[in-house]
Amino acid sequence: MYLYNDLQRNGIGKALLLGFGQTAGLQTVRNYMVRGVKIANKVVELFSHTMSEENITESATWDSEVLNSTTPPFSDKLMMFQVSLLTGASSGYYGTALGTAARRDIGTKYLRLLAESIQYAEDGANILIEHGWMEQPPQSIDNVEIAKTKKQ
């Protein structure tokens, strides 16, 4: 079940990233979107291959639905925020699938994808921070350091 759903999600995500990538204003955002397209394409190929080995029909892709427009319908900030949310959701789906995988080969695939998804999410967060679109994520409090530097 997770394979098919993740195949669907990555197919849709790939189309979204294609559209965002060709309309983003900043080169760093365009590069990030193109990298996401490559990751999503890898996931689609990996899961399609796994399903075809089991004689399960794969789903269609949505690449042909992406227009050739380069006029941005959204700001780079909004596109990055949307991709950040979707990448976080993907990591959650991969983690759930990993935890419930009954086959070692599928679990291994999900483990690898989860690691790559987390790295991609971190790089996206860094782009958001770098451009001032997101504050630095909350940090833990160093209570020992506070105790050491407390003034009498």
Can you put this structure into words, describing what you see?
- InterPro entries: DUF3231, Ferritin-like.
- Pfam families: DUF3231.
- This is DUF3231 family protein.
- This protein is mainly α and about 150 residues long.
- It has a single domain (about 1-55, about 65-135), classed as Ferritin (Up-down Bundle), CATH 1.20.1260.
- About 70% of the residues lie in helices and about 0% in strands.
- Helix 1 packs antiparallel against helix 2 and helix 2 (about 25-55) packs antiparallel against helix 4 (about 105-130).
What is the compact description of this entry?
The chain is built from five helices and no strands.
